[in-house]
Every structure is written in C-alpha cells, then in structure tokens.
Amino acid sequence: MKWYNALKDYQHYLKIERGLSSNSIENYSYDIKKLINYLVENTISESPISIDDTLVKEFIYHISKSLNPRSQARLISGLRNFFDYLIFENYRTTNPLDLIESPKIGRKLPDTLSVEDIDLLISTIDLSYQYQGINLGERNRAILETLYSCGLRVSELINLKLSDLFFDEGFIKVTGKGDKQRFVPIGKTTQNYIMIWKSIRNHIAVQPNSKDILFLNYKGKKLTRAMVFTIIKKLVEKSGLKKNVSPHTFRHSFATHLLENGADLRAIQMMLGHESITTTEIYMHVDRSHLSEVLNKYHPRK
C-alpha cells in the first residue's frame, strides 16, 4: 500500500463514516502529509504497513524541534488516529504510536473580550466605507455582531445562507462540524444589522455559486476564512486594543458572557454546537472570581 493511497482512503473514511467537514479532514490529514514528506525527503521507502515505531519516533523527534507542546500533542494524536484506522481496515496489527507519549500540556483557557472591548471594536468600523461602490462597512458590522451574538465559528459564519435566517422565529440555522445543524437564537439588534447588509447585498452582482450565501465580498463571492481574520485584525489595530483577537475570540466571549450572566451550561453547549458538554465546561474555569461571587451571593453557608 502506498502512502497517498492510504491517505486518500483515510480521508474517504473521515468523510463518509465519520461525517467530518472538509476543514476537519484537512486538519486530520495535515500531520500525515508531514510524515510522508519526511520519508520522501530522506529517501525512506517504508510503507504505511511496514513503518515501525523507531522510524516514527525519529520523525517526531525531528519535527518536534520547531513545535510547542500543544502542537506536538496534536501531531501524535493525528498520527495515532491514522494508524488506528489502518488497524481497523486490517492493513496492520499494531500501532507504532502506542508506546509514544504525548507531552503534558496545561488546559488552555480561551481568550475573551469584555463587553467594552467588543463595543470598542464595533464602534471602530467605518460604516461609510465603500469599495467598488459597495458599502462594506455595514457588512463588517453585521459580521462582528453575528460572531458575538450567536457564538459562531468562522467557518459557520462564511457558510451562513439567506435561507438559514428565520427572523420571524428569532433563530438562524447553523451548519457546524460534521455538517451537523443546530438552531441558534439571534437578537433583534443583530437582525437589524443583517437586514441593513441584505439591502446592500441586493445591489451586488452575485456569483452563481454564492446566490444563497449571506456575507459576500464586493465581487459577489463567498468570503474566505482569511478575509474574516483580516477584517478583525485591521479593526484591532485601528482601535488600539492590546489583545490577540481572532474570530474565535468572539465565540469564546459569547459563551463566557452568557455563563457570567447566569446561563445554563447545557443551553450554552447547544448554542455552541459542542458534541460533548465537557468541551463547554472549559468556560467554568474562565472567571473564577465570578463563580466565587455566585457562591457568596446564593449559598446559605457564605
């Protein structure tokens, strides 16, 4: 069995059997491609079936010099899953990573913005900004408001469709990881900003494959993930905010602010689209001072 054939089979398995999205499949494949490149560069002819733990250890040692512990752990986990798949398909009987330990890493707490930070970033947007006759300032405000008000992943935002908007019911339909769909509440303020953008969008010559996409560039095409990152990066620089902010920061802030204001963890899990509530529980560690205040206020043994 050749490496690229094995990788292609694995990607097919992730798509059909696991129901993963294209982005997730690419992430799973990334570290396997690194291993393949390492073998090619060093003229090593071992196949996915014959490669042993010694060679895998050499590769991990080689590549880990430039990786932090978290990235090393992800690398090892990704390769372990790949070889588990080969065992599942009866190509191998052992996993060469079984005896390789992942580096110990602390639990990374998500970065968050305060409500004042978010207000600052949104107020920094030039609502009169136009490019090629299209008002992109209003679009950018609608994007930030949607990220924060609905807790979306950036991939969910750029794939949001006009047909996913159920404003009369107060919800939007979101397609998340593994193409799993969920309904997320959306407030009137954010609805209004989206409606303003929709009225501008009506004057754009939309490309055929983006007819139902909500957020477009001036060419009438769906926005890329990189473009959303760029929009936010420029706003952060312009605002003078001294924080590392990405689209995901708005999602973290959405969950944190809900929890701080008394929202039920299970409800937050459903809105975020987390498969396991243990993923959502990380927000319980974000603001310990708030939890202490809750205890002091509501528990009889203060």
Automatic annotation (TrEMBL):
Name of the gene encoding the protein in the UniProt record: xerC
Family, similarity comment: Belongs to the 'phage' integrase family. XerC subfamily.
Catalytic center residues: 153, 177, 248, 251, 274, 283 (o-(3'-phospho-dna)-tyrosine intermediate)
Instruction: Point out the coiled-coil segments of this chain.
Output: none
Alphabetized, the UniProt keywords read: Cell cycle, Cell division, Chromosome partition, Cytoplasm, DNA integration, DNA recombination, DNA-binding
The record describes the protein's role as: Site-specific tyrosine recombinase, which acts by catalyzing the cutting and rejoining of the recombining DNA molecules. The XerC-XerD complex is essential to convert dimers of the bacterial chromosome into monomers to permit their segregation at cell division. It also contributes to the segregational stability of plasmids.
Which InterPro entries does the annotation name? CB, DNA_brk_join_enz, Integrase-like_cat_sf, Integrase_catalytic, Integrase_recombinase_N, Integrase_SAM-like_N, Tyrosine_recombinase_XerC/XerD, Tyrosine_recombinase_XerCD
Its name, as the record gives it, is Tyrosine recombinase XerC
Q: Which residues form the Tyr recombinase domain?
A: 108-296
Quaternary data: Forms a cyclic heterotetrameric complex composed of two molecules of XerC and two molecules of XerD.
UniProt cross-references to CDD domains, sorted A to Z: INT_XerDC_C
The entry's localization annotation reads: Cytoplasm
- PROSITE patterns referenced in this protein's UniProt entry, alphabetically: CB, TYR_RECOMBINASE
Domain annotation Core-binding (CB): ranges: 1-87
Q: What is its main location?
A: cytoplasm
From what superkingdom does this record's organism come?
Answer: Bacteria
